[in-house]
Amino acid sequence: MPNSHVLPWRRLLAACIALAATAPVHSAEPAPKPEPAPNVVLIVADDLGFSDLGVFGSEIATPHLDALAHAGAQLTNFHAAPTCSPTRSMLLSGTDNHTAGVGAMTEGPGGALAGNYGYEGRITDRVATLAERLRENGYATVMAGKWHLGMTSDSVPAARGFNQSFALLQGGHNHFGKGGFGAPAEGPLGAVYQDDGKVAGVPEDFYSSDYFTAQLLDKIAKVDAAQPVFAYLAFTAPHSPLQAPAELIAKQRGRYNGGWVELRRERLARMVEKGLIRADQIPPESADAVQAWNRLSPEQRAIEARKMEIYAAMVERLDDNIGRLVEALKRSGRYDNTVFVFTSDNGPAAETATTFQVVPGALEYISSFDNSLANMGSATSFVFYGRYWALAASAPNRLHKGTVLEGGTRVPAFITYPARSTRAVGDAYATVMDVVPTVLELTAIPAIERVAERTVAPLRGRTLASYIQGKSEEIPGADAPIAYELHGQRSVVKGQWKLVYMPAPFGSGQWQLFDIGRDPQEREELSEREPGRRAELIAAWEAYAAETRVLIPKTPPPAVPVE
After folding, report:
1. Across 192-209, average pLDDT
2. How confident is the model over 321-357, as pLDDT tens digits?
3. Is 3.30.420.10 the CATH number for 39-471?
4. Class of domain 481-563 (CATH, top level)
5. How many Å apart are CA 76 and CA 27, to the nearest integer?
6. Strands (DSSP E) along 228-348, which ranges?
7. Does residue 5 carry a catalytic annotation?
8. 366 near 384, Cβ under 8 Å?
9. Catalytic member of 148, 173, 400, 487
10. Residues 292-319: pLDDT tens digits?
11. Mean of pLDDT values over 142-149
């Protein structure tokens, strides 16, 4: 039965506490007012190359991103996975993509791997998203843009921690909203949009970067001014198909008539001037790239230059929208207390229409578009970036998206916390897995393994908070090995050493050892000179593979050849 006689004592105790609280205290200073929790804005570009921002050496006009980067810590040795959905799973979970359920592209690895642990093709309940962690600690969580982490009811943004969301569920779409990569809409090359978990359409004047930003701003505006916000803005630019407003394409006209070799030379020179790379780190020019441009007819050169003009227009429009976001945050009073994290999801894309030939009907669908010079970049065109422009955009790194080499994984990134970021440029090796633990430390939220009423995998990433604030010259655990695997490609990095395995026919089919501190282009293979180090890193990779339950496909999926 209730113990009713206790209640008067509670009332008396409460009265005494209230009296003590109102009594004057002359011996102590007033307690400082606690600082409000910071807002967090996570921005992801899609297939953006290492040198595609002005701050990283580009000629493309990106003043808003450059200003944010200059206000914080530019991360010049930051790494993603080789492709988009594995990166997004690591970025939002702070752990390995296999643990998160995206051991292969979410479109499905096929064959014997499908459905196995780590290859579910969607983000699983084994991990907690950053949105889930922040929402449990009082944050309003909003997102707009590309999701690419599953289309099941339990794997869409509305089910994974976001109070409000407008999401493209698949990996790509027509940037003007005229359908997806192909039919049906629900398929791997379709385009399904959800608004707060319900299927939604897009307006006639839809353009991806504009609309996603507008949706994000609208959702932030609905949040009480006193509540901290986590905002995730996931652009689909500059992912193929290359499409942009005509006036922005016209603005770039003639800029790239010199071709991809000239573009690469110019960007490398600017990177040296900015101190991002040393002059002795400029790799030799590719004879193949030089010959490929020289072989083109004037008409073919005009087509190739137009591709780059469209790409630059897409990046410029993305940056314009960052300006809209920053101005809105300043008007609302949130800007000064906002942590900004920016990254690309992988290196620049060398894919062409044939990359998608494994999808039934994709080649026929893509070939139905009008890719004449006059129509390129419009809603009725379907243009790809291509191998040689991608190689220029990834400079000085080797290769591009889809490979575990530096060109596929080293991406432009920065973390900015106005008035709290003191490091200008950081060249320590960091990864997308480090974002969650960094944000948790900056927001004073513990990295617990009980989230959203379930036990989740521990974080593999390391916090960069002290590093970006200039309090530490090293990232915690800097000497620990960091391993990756995707579609049979494998790598492990420890300090300046990197071990790589690229299956034939896309690589040598052997473990290769590189000193990426001295040779970031991965040109000089050192296995014979350093057999002990090679063996050490192979053992580290095998330990990682066992822990994360990696499965190696017997036949690697189609990819762009390495050389």
Report:
1. 96
2. 999 999 999 999 999 999 999 999 999 999 988 887 7
3. no
4. alpha beta
5. 51
6. 229-234, 338-344
7. no
8. no
9. 148
10. 999 999 999 999 999 999 999 999 999 9
11. 98
Where, residue-wise, is CATH 3.30.1120.10 in the chain? 481-563
Instruction: Take residue 96 and report the two structure tokens written for it.
Output: 């390995």
Q: Taking all residues of the chain, what is their mean pLDDT, rounded to a whole number? A: 90
Structure tokens at 355: 């990359």
For residue 390, give the nearest of 302, 284, 288, 311 by alpha carbon: 311
* Catalytic residue status for 16: no
305 backbone φψ class: left, alpha, beta (φ>0; ψ -120 to 50) = alpha
Element (H, E) at 41: strand 39-45
Contacts of residue 94, Cβ cutoff 8 Å, sequence gap at least 6? 127, 130, 433, 434, 435, 436, 437, 447, 459, 460, 461
Selection from 340, 446, 444, 391 nearest residue 75 by Cα:
340
3-class SS letters over 425-456: EECCCEEHHHHHHHHHHHCCCCCCCEECCEEC
Residues of the chain with CATH 3.40.720.10: 39-471
Helical axes 208-221 vs 298-332, angle rounded to 10°: 10
- Tens of pLDDT, residue by residue over 38-79, are 999 999 999 999 999 999 999 999 999 999 999 999 999 999
3-state secondary structure at position 227: coil
User: pTM to 2 decimals?
Assistant: 0.92
Q: What is the DSSP string of 396-410?
A: TSSS-TTSSSHHHHE
Residue 25: per-residue pLDDT: 44
Q: Which one from 79, 84, 173, 400 is the annotated catalytic residue?
A: 84
* CA dihedral of residues 40, 34, 328, 346 (deg, nearest 10): -10
Q: Which has the higher per-residue pLDDT, 1 or 273?
A: 273
